[in-house]
Design goal:
Length: 92
């Protein structure tokens, strides 16, 4: 059986490795914080866009209702006038 040897390092090398690792982790943290900030900005833009779409849909529904109402009123005014014109034609 072979016995694995454990690498031993002195305090100076340990501190250097530790500092390098800490620097790497700090950079990763900064990168992640930047990514989080970008994602938060995208979410905010998405929410604004969604609110704008909701507003547009509400405006479209309102305009559709107004068109439907106007169409009904036009039809209701045309029907009696058609009847009058038919009656006038039949009397002639």
């Amino acid at each position: 059986m072979s016995i694995e040897s454990i690498e031993t390092i002195n305090h100076i090398d340990f501190d250097k490795r530790l500092d390098l690792n800490n620097a790497r982790l700090r950079q990763e943290l900064v990168d992640m914080q930047n990514r989080v900030q970008q994602l938060e900005m995208l979410i905010t833009r998405k929410e604004i866009f969604s609110q704008r779409l909701d507003q547009i849909l509400t405006e479209l529904e309102s305009e559709e209702n107004e068109i439907a109402s106007l169409t009904k009123s036009v039809h209701s005014t045309l029907i009696p006038s058609r009847k009058r014109s038919r009656n006038a034609q039949s009397k002639q």
